[in-house]
Amino acid sequence: AERRPGAVRARLTAGAQNLAAAASDDGIEKLMGGRRAQRAFFMLMAGRYDAAKSAGFDGTIVFDLGLSDGTRNSWAIEVRDGRARAGGAADAALIVRAPLADFIRVSLGGGSFYPLMADGRTMIEGDLALAGRMAEMFGARSVY
After folding, report:
1. Would you state the torsion angle of the CA atoms of residues 130, 131, 137, 141, taken in this order, to the nearest 10 degrees?
2. Residue 26 burial (10 A CB sphere; 0-12, 13-18, 19+)
3. Kind and range of the H or E element at 18?
4. Hey, which of 8, 46, 90, 132 has its CA 20 to 30 A from 79?
């Protein structure tokens, strides 16, 4: 079995994608509902940032995630000078408000938030062009 970091990361990503696709909303919330798990997810997401796919974006993206019990957690990824880090300023170029389970599925599957917007499950405020390339920016496959 390959032990290179890229191969390990690819296997972990594939496993997480399969889990997100198969798990119920409750299952995803049990696994990812805590602040620690979410913090780790956003740190990994920032680590997967690909500046070549950002069209020169510098700014902050805020994610406002809701759980079925009404709890909401807000997270940010700040992109500056071709690098991304979890955390960031309050002035957001884009705000994504979504149920946690939907957010995890879209983020891991490289999907789009647009169908979720159409049925009212997700709200996106700000730069919609940025929203359209967000999955690719953070290492997911393109949906286009």
Report:
1. -140
2. exposed
3. helix 5-22
4. 8
Residue 2 has pLDDT above 60, yes or no: no
**Burial letters 111-127, b for 16+ CB under 10 A, else e:** bbbeebbeeeebebebb
C-alpha span between 114 and 118 (Å, rounded):
6
Q: Residue 144: its pLDDT value, please?
A: 44
Burial of 140 (0-12, 13-18, 19+ CB in 10 A): buried
CB 114 within 8 A of CB 106: no
Six-digit token pair at 48?
């997967």
Per-residue pLDDT of 58-79, as tens digits, reads 999 999 999 999 999 999 999 9
Tokens of 79: 């992109």
Please state whether the predicted TM-score (pTM) of the whole model is above 0.85.
no
What is the C-alpha separation between 19 and 105, in angstroms, rounded? 9
Phi first, then psi, for residue 29 (nearest 5°) are -65, -40
